[in-house]
Amino acid sequence: MKSEKIYSWDAHSDQPHVTRNKKVKRGLYRQGWLGSLKTLLTSLVLPVIGIKMLFQPRTLIGQKINMIGLCVNIDTPLQEKKSVSTIDLQEMTVDLGVNDLLIRLPLSDIENLDTHVAFIKSFKDCDVLVNILQDRRHVEDPLLLHKSLNAIFKALNTTVTHFQIGNAVNRRKWAFVSLDEYFQFFSVAQKLRDQSYPSLQLIGGSIIDFEPPNFARSVWHRYPIHYDGAAALLYVDRRGAPENKQLGCDLISKINWYHQTITSSNKCSNKLWVTETNWPLIGTEPFAPAVGDCMVGEQKQAAYLVRYFLLMFVSGRIERCYWHQLVAPGYGLIDNRGEALRKRPAYYSYKLLLQLFDGATVLNFSEDKSGIYRLKVKNNCGLVEACWVNGGEQGIAVNSNQYAFEHTGKPCIKEESSLLRISDDVVYVLDYPLLCDSYAT
């Protein structure tokens, strides 16, 4: 079967289609058997990482927050949704106040490179990480890959500093049959960078989901390559809330596990980039990237978005984190199905999160035995405390001179006893008034 048949793109969910042909799937697994064996052998040393984690603090207090990013991509026209122009996207990023963007550049569309370059350069006031998406023809043809990467680097060398090489490389539907193929792919990019574009920073690894064996293999190998930062598409939606555990790890532990893995490697700098995360939304098929128990409603999506970022702040070990993405019917901050652009609750939650926490300093974090999470920071205006619980409801005491807001910006109503009810939805307690006319009501 031809590659274009195996690796077809799903324009609705912005990812490759899952390979359904069992014969083809067996063939891909046979091609990658040796790489799978190497990954299995690498996983035998993972207990060492677990032991090292016992001797490091779970959270880091005193860190300055400057990691809030957002994925913004060129719109793919479809009959079921409203087209989004570059100007629309620019206006929305300005409204949100976001400066750090991740923009995809697919090698499958290298023939239209000028269009992608113009789109990237249009966000001239933002710091852009360009994610170069692989396709099978470039994986199989190193000379073509060198030619295409050279065209990309040459066009963006004076505009972009950081490039993420590859995406979701541990999923065969994304065109690599093994991590060994990815290492060779990255090697072409690194050699070109070293020879002609020494100022560029190349982010590698690009493992999707929490998979310690694959992540360890991505940074423990014998290939002559070195990442300027490790990329992780650290989705946790399969476990629901970010505080829920997988393999005994909640989000903070997952971050610590990955960070300890890269600090134990000589193939990577100690910078960990979370280049994608989101939750798929109920009732958005076929636009949802995944279906089943991982799907949530819009209110839950907004709450989980905020809690994901808050937990990342206190981990203190993330270089940048990008929500995937701004406009997408199945998971984005904005729904563009139909004839209009509709801002979801997550849009307002993301906007307020940026306003309150970008540039702030982490002062304190607590995980109460009763289930209450509390994070306190200091920004340029004063003190902000984020409070929430993972399931259920609790009450906390609030001073009469403090101000409380829901994570979408709506003012909270205090009870007569000065108690504030908190639940899955994050509540912000401030020592200064907040102007929130532009947020959800």
Task: Give a brief rundown of this model.
By secondary structure, the protein is an alpha/beta fold. Helices cover 32% and strands 20% of the residues. Strands 3-4-5-6-7-8-9-10 form an eight-stranded parallel barrel, surrounded by five helices. The chain has a five-stranded antiparallel β-sheet with strand order 13-14-15-19-17, with helices on one face. A two-stranded antiparallel sheet has the order 1-2.
Features of the shown structure:
5-stranded antiparallel β-sheet; globular; alpha/beta; TIM Barrel; 19 strands; 2 domains; 32% helix; Immunoglobulin-like
Describe this structure in words.
The structure is a single chain. The chain has 441 residues and is of the alpha/beta class. The chain folds into two domains: 350 residues, TIM Barrel, CATH 3.20.20.80; 67 residues, Immunoglobulin-like (Sandwich), CATH 2.60.40. It is 32% helix and 20% strand. An eight-stranded parallel barrel has the order 3-4-5-6-7-8-9-10, surrounded by five helices. It has a five-stranded antiparallel β-sheet with strand order 13-14-15-19-17, covered by helices on one side. A two-stranded antiparallel ribbon has the order 1-2. Helix 3 packs across helix 10. The longest helix has 18 residues.
